[in-house]
Amino acid sequence: MPTAIRLSAFISATAKVRCVASSSEKCARMARAMTGAARFIREKPAEALEILRKRFDRLDPQVLNAAWQVVSKAHAQDTRVTIVGLENSQRVSIEAGLLDPKDALKSFDGLFTDEFLQ
């Protein structure tokens, strides 16, 4: 798997500052849930795949199996957001044509926090 994908901020949540300030406990619960989901995917990939089979029951099982071999390895080992992860996510988005280079951020300072992962 390309390093750019492994080091991407693959799991993240976006919220407005005022929402985070007024709902910090909800944000903490969401962060714990996302961390738990990433751990479940890493520690029990076969069980996670079975959950996906139910959700994507019309998808060809061979296609789902092949996709899972890539996607399950791309999930974060550590759910903390880092500048490197955000930079790599942005680069992957540009390379994939999902983000126009002119819209790329020059800095991610002040745009994220890990306080809810404590």
Helix/strand layout:
Blueprint (H helix, E strand, L loop, with lengths): L2 H4 L10 H6 L1 H20 L1 H11 L5 H14 L8 H13 L23
Task: Give a verbal description of the structure.
The chain is mainly alpha-helical and 118 residues long. The protein has one domain. It has helices at residues 3-6, 17-22, 24-43, 45-55, 61-74, 83-95. Helix 4 (45-55) crosses helix 5 (61-74).
Give the helix proportion (percent range).
55-70%
Biggest sheet: strands, sense, closure? none
Mean pLDDT: 80
Cα-based radius of gyration, to the nearest Å? 16 Å
Low-confidence stretches: 1-8
Question: Could you give the count of β-strands?
Answer: 0
Global outline: globular
Helix segment count?
6
N to C succession of SSEs:
HHHHHH
Q: Separation of termini?
A: 29 Å
Number of discrete domains: 1
Strand-residue proportion: under 5%
Oligomeric state:
single chain
Structural class category: mainly alpha
Structural key phrases:
mainly alpha; 118 residues; 58% helix; disordered N terminus; 6 helices
Condensed summary:
With 118 residues, this protein is mainly α. It has six helices and no strands. It has one domain (14-111).
